[in-house]
């Protein structure tokens, strides 16, 4: 395991890349010439997603040629997460592509760094709001350099929750059941459109609860940020034995600690897990 100084240097590098990617995607959107495409069925991708991915992964490869990379647009090989022997970078060049294409501000670049399947450093940069969330394991989480903490919510009925919906809409029933249960038992719902920002917003208390099924690049950095801000992060179904929990995206639940278990039970029941 790298020493704390080496992890700080890695977080500095990740932050530098996230800021550079932020400038790049802002510039591309300002040109009003965004080229969009469909990856599958209804998942949108723009040329800026690919440009930012190439820039970030290229810079990592140059500096750390022996590290592995898992990135949404150019290296989406999920089996990389199972190689615990080599350091792994997990990249989402634009989290919130639909927001990005529609001119909304809730867009982030997410960069995480893991050793032996555990995320050690995470940066989530939101270029349109000028906010950078950052954490290294064991040292707390910050927003633009200022320490952050979860909301301290104690009851679901006083909690604002966020979730998201998959691009493929073939099995909506469990999702709708969970939503119905949560809407009845919580204060209100937000569908912001960037999983990384949803989680960072739980970390800084703008939201109380987040749950979803997502990919490692959506949450790897933000999950560490939430944990370091004192939030509770886990899953409301079992993580397969041997798979790194830091990178398992199914049935993720991240919230203020005091509501976590109650919400887990609500989601398990609504999902038919018990
Ligand atoms: C998506 C966003 C969205 C979430 C989806 C993700 P993308 O990522 O994080 O909030 O609901 O599940 O796929 O495709 O914009 O990088
Ligand atoms: Ca995507
Ligand atoms: Ca994403
Ligand atoms: Ca993305």
From TrEMBL:
GO molecular function: inositol monophosphate 1-phosphatase activity; metal ion binding
Keywords, sorted A to Z: Hydrolase, Magnesium, Metal-binding, Transcription, Transcription antitermination, Transcription regulation
Root EC class: hydrolase
GO biological process annotation, one example: phosphatidylinositol phosphate biosynthetic process
Signal peptide limits: none
Residues noted as binding Mg(2+) in the record, renumbered to the chain: 72, 92, 94-95, 218
Co-factor(s): Mg(2+)
One Pfam family linked to the record: Inositol_P
EC numbers on record: 3.1.3.25
InterPro entries: IMPase, Inositol_monoP_metal-BS, Inositol_monophosphatase-like, Inositol_monophosphatase_CS
PROSITE patterns for the chain: IMP_1, IMP_2
SUPFAM superfamilies to which the protein is assigned, alphabetical: Carbohydrate phosphatase
Entries under Gene3D superfamilies matching the protein: 3.40.190.80, Fructose-1,6-Bisphosphatase, subunit A, domain 1
Family: Belongs to the inositol monophosphatase superfamily.
The protein, known as: Inositol-1-monophosphatase
UniProt organism field: Marinobacter algicola DG893
């Amino acid at each position: 395991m790298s020493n704390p100084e080496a992890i700080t240097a890695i977080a500095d590098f990740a932050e530098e890349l996230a800021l550079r990617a932020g400038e790049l995607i802002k510039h591309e959107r300002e040109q009003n010439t965004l080229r969009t495409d469909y990856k599958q069925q209804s998942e949108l991708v723009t040329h800026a997603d690919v440009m930012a991915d190439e820039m970030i992964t290229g810079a990592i490869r140059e500096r750390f040629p022996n590290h592995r990379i898992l990135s949404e647009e150019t290296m989406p090989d999920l089996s990389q997460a199972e190689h615990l022997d080599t350091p792994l970078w997990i990249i989402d060049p634009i989290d919130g592509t639909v927001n990005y294409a529609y001119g909304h501000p809730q867009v982030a670049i997410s960069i995480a760094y893991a050793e032996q399947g555990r995320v050690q450093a995470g940066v989530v940069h939101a270029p349109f709001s000028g906010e950078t969330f950052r954490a290294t394991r064991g040292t707390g989480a910050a927003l633009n350099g200022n320490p952050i903490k979860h909301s301290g919510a104690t009851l679901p009925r006083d909690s604002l929750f966020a979730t998201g919906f998959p691009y493929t809409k073939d099995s909506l029933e469990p999702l709708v059941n969970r939503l119905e249960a949560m809407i009845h038992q919580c204060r209100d719902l937000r569908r912001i459109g960037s999983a990384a920002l949803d989680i960072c917003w739980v970390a800084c208390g703008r939201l109380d609860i987040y749950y979803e099924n997502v990919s490692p690049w959506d949450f790897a950095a933000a999950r560490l940020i939430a944990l370091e801000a004192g939030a509770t992060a886990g899953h409301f179904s079992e993580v397969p034995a041997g798979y790194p929990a830091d990178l398992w995206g199914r049935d993720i639940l991240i919230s203020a600690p005091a509501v976590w278990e109650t919400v887990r039970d609500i989601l398990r029941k609504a999902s038919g897990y018990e």
